[in-house]
Design goal:
Blueprint (H helix, E strand, L loop, with lengths): L1 H13 L1 H37 L5 E5 L8 H11 L2 E16 L2 E9 L9 H4 E4 L7 E5 H7 L6 E7 L3 E12 L4 H6 E4 L1 H8 L6 E6 L5 H11 L5 E5 H4 L1 H39 L1 H9 L4 H37 L15 H18 L1 H8 L3 H7 L1
Parallel strand pairs: 3-8, 5-7
Antiparallel strand pairs: 1-9, 1-10, 2-3, 2-6, 2-9, 4-7, 5-8, 6-7
């Protein structure tokens, strides 16, 4: 084993330029594989974050649109069944805001202000979240369009079993970076929402889960467990089929590109090592005549593949890291934030290293078998 390793190293060093080009080829392939895998994965996470990052993954409502009476049981069950990262108890419904002679249609939503899946505290750009009854926050676009600011009192008009007239004080202004939400949502706490709608229970429960791609499984489990309670359960995949198609397309294209890169690297290594067998056939023949066994001869070229793969992987990861650094540094928006926020983990380095080394070793199998079949008498006789 030690002899085979030393011989493999000497063979590689006997033609340094050729060895350098092979290692460089492997390094380029590994760097591309690393860069693409990190970039595609980050693109998917950014797309998911922007699309459903502050949206519910599973939503539970009452079939007829009424209150969800057993909401505490549903919350407890879902927290045990799924890895829930956040949830909201929601009481919502339409209202009109009276502004002069105009009646403005809005959606009044009572939610958990402090531990909301919408991260309300981070969205407040002026004032504070509602803490007392009859306090609300409004969107930036709504505030600017109707000249309503923090401290102003607004009047609501609604219809539920008769005419409802309510009023509340604006304690803050939020910005969701979505014009429709900033224009139509008015948020408050559930105490105020219960009072406005004349109810004692919420009409919606919204969950965010960590394992978002299994939301359909958890949704079905909730449905079956509470099938006799008249609830309706929906999940984000139902409303985002186009997004799922896009994500699947990205994943498939990423895998295809990486496979082509690995195949190209493997073919390059195999072809060069086969040429090496021909170049070193005389030396191999002499070694066999001196008693070197076929298995030891094969091991020499396996070790060559291993050494090439190892050094190629090390250099390739360094190049890949440099490419990722350059992308995150120079591919930025006008406000200097990265166009794509990169999510990098050690698993990418491990996978890329294994890909480089394994593809190199596998590529060495053919030339290794070819070297084992060499007849030392014929090789020495023919020079």
């Amino acid at each position: 084993m030690k002899f085979s390793l030393k011989t493999a190293f000497r063979f590689l060093m006997s033609n340094k330029a050729q060895t350098f080009l092979i290692v460089l080829g492997i390094a380029v392939g590994i760097s591309v594989q690393l860069f693409i895998s990190v970039l595609i994965d980050s693109l998917q996470k950014n797309l998911i974050e922007k699309t459903i990052g502050n949206s519910p993954h599973i939503t539970v409502t009452e079939m007829s649109g009424g209150s969800v009476e057993n909401y505490n049981e549903i919350i407890d069950y879902t927290k045990k069944e799924a890895d829930v990262s956040a949830y909201d108890i929601v009481t919502e419904g339409p209202f009109f805001v009276l502004s002069g002679s105009e009646n403005i249609s809005v959606l009044l939503r009572g939610i958990s202000m402090k531990d909301s899946i919408y991260n309300i505290k981070e969205k407040i750009i002026s004032g504070n979240i509602p803490e007392n009854i009859n306090e609300v926050i409004i969107g930036k676009d709504f505030s600017e369009k109707y000249n309503i600011n923090t401290g102003d009192k607004i009047n609501f008009l609604g219809f539920k079993g008769g005419l409802l007239r309510k009023s509340a004080t604006v304690t803050g202004i939020f910005d969701f970076k979505v014009s429709n939400l900033n224009s139509t949502w008015i948020l408050t706490n559930n105490i105020t929402a219960y009072d406005f709608f004349g109810v004692s229970n919420p009409n919606k429960i919204e969950f965010q889960i960590k394992d978002i791609f299994n939301s359909d499984i958890y949704s079905e489990n909730i449905k079956s467990n509470f099938s006799n309670t008249g609830i309706k359960v929906s999940e984000w995949k139902e409303q985002n089929s186009d997004l799922l198609s896009g994500l699947n397309g990205q994943s498939i294209s990423s895998i295809m590109i990486q496979i082509f890169v690995i195949v190209a690297v493997a073919l390059g290594i195999a072809s060069v090592l086969i040429i090496t067998v021909l170049q070193k056939s005389k030396q191999i023949g002499i070694l066999k005549a001196m008693g070197l066994k076929n298995r030891q001869t094969s091991t020499i070229f396996i070790f060559e593949g291993l050494l090439l793969g190892f050094f190629g992987a090390v250099i390739g990861i360094a190049i890949g890291m440099f490419l990722l650094w350059g992308f995150s540094t120079f591919a930025v928006n006008p406000d200097k934030t990265p166009i794509v926020k990169l999510y990098f983990g050690y698993r990418y380095i491990i996978i890329s290293s294994l890909v480089g080394i394994l593809s190199s070793v596998i590529s060495a199998i053919i030339p290794a078998g070819k070297s084992a079949k060499l007849d030392p008498v014929e090789v020495i006789r023919n020079g």
